[in-house]
Write a structure and sequence with these properties.
By secondary structure, the protein is an alpha+beta fold. It has helices spanning about 5-10, 50-65, 115-135, 155, 165-180, 220-235, 245-260, 270-290, 300-315, 320-325, and strands at about 20-25, 30-35, 40-45, 85-90, 90-100, 105, 185-190, 200, 205-210, 215-220. Strands 1-2-3-5-4 form a 5-stranded antiparallel sheet, with no helix packed on it. The chain has a 3-stranded antiparallel sheet with strand order 6-8-9, with helices on one face. The radius of gyration is 20 Å and the shape is globular.
Length: about 325
């Protein structure tokens, strides 16, 4: 949290005071919400995002909103600035304001196959919109997927936690995936972090927010992130068992159905999906070492980490990607 004087300095240009706000979280960004739930304030430091990258993100969200995608639009300052940029005591702050999503948080534990089909449809519509945006001829200043902090700075910072084979496997997968054909149907602006933490639900409609990680990449990467974070990790009973793929398909099948109906892609390359999925596992493996005191965790957690390490090093996995993506059976 920020001290009250600093917080007021940063939010006053949006017509808000500290008395209007409640603290939500502090991770990469510091996030507050108006007590009346009309707006959300995000406070970033330039070490994570530049002014140009922030403007690109907000331009993309505004474009999605104009195409009737259910996103939380940016709210400018009172004098019409897209966001606030200022330096205070040597720290460069970038402050953005967004409309608050209507409804209530979409809770993963309450999500059934109907919700997952809607999630797939929303993702597909965003990728379809990314295809139309590509025709405008105005590229935005966002990183390419392989330039992500998650695949670069985080891995360098915690290189002592990974083996040379782990590192080489990641580089091999990134190289192979980047050789894929880039067409408007398969490549463009992606959300970068599609999971239930970033959804609200209002009268059955899903609203998505937090485009801070949006980037240029293959659409399959968005799908792999959702498959890993919101399905696989939730149905895994600590370790893979005989029923794992059936439990995954029960939710992945509807999501994929909703996606393929609404996206520019009409089929999924499961071999590439597998690579993106394993890359996600590598990111989560490093994330655990970055955020947890791994040495103090129990034997079960360490066995799970060992499975993750071997999956990445050998580029194999317990998930049968062809079977779970077969919508005919």
């Amino acid at each position: 949290m920020l001290n009250i004087e600093l917080l007021n300095t940063l939010v006053r240009p949006f017509g808000i005071s500290d008395a209007d706000l409640e603290f939500i979280q502090h991770s990469q960004n510091i996030v507050y919400r108006q007590l009346n739930r009309k707006r959300v304030i995000r406070i970033s430091k330039e070490r994570y995002r530049t002014e140009s990258q922030t403007k690109a993100e907000l331009d993309w969200v505004n474009y999605l909103a104009k195409q009737n995608i259910s996103v939380c639009r940016p709210v400018p300052t009172e004098n019409g600035q897209t966001f606030l940029s200022c330096v205070i005591e040597g720290v460069h702050y970038i402050v953005s304001s967004f409309e608050h999503a209507p409804g209530l948080p979409a809770l993963r534990q309450d999500a059934d196959e109907v919700v997952f089909e809607k999630l797939g449809a929303l993702n597909g519509k965003m990728h379809q919109t990314a295809k139309s945006f590509a025709t405008t001829g105005h590229p935005l200043d966002r990183l390419m997927c392989h330039e992500s902090r998650l695949l670069n700075e985080d891995f360098l910072e915690f290189k002592q936690s990974i083996t040379p084979k782990f590192r080489d496997s990641i580089l091999d997968m990134i190289s192979e995936l980047n050789e894929g054909r880039r067409t408007p149907e398969s490549f463009g602006l992606t959300h970068g972090d599609i999971n239930f933490v970033n959804f609200y639900q209002d009268n059955g409609e899903l609203w998505i927010y937090d485009f801070d990680n949006c980037e240029y990449g293959y659409h399959l990467q968005d799908l792999a992130t959702t498959l890993y974070d919101s399905i696989y990790c939730k149905v895994l009973n600590k370790f893979a068992d005989e029923g794992l793929n059936s439990r995954i398909k029960f939710l992945w099948g509807p999501l994929l159905k909703g996606y393929l109906i609404n996206s520019p892609s009409k089929a999924v390359d499961t071999s590439r999906l597998k690579k993106f999925f394993i890359l996600r596992e590598a990111i989560i493996y490093v994330h655990y070492h970055r955020t947890l005191n791994v040495e103090e965790l129990g034997d079960s957690f360490h066995r799970g980490l060992e499975v993750m390490r071997l999956n990445v090093e050998n580029q194999t996995h317990q998930v049968d990607f062809a079977a779970i993506s077969n919508l005919k059976n």
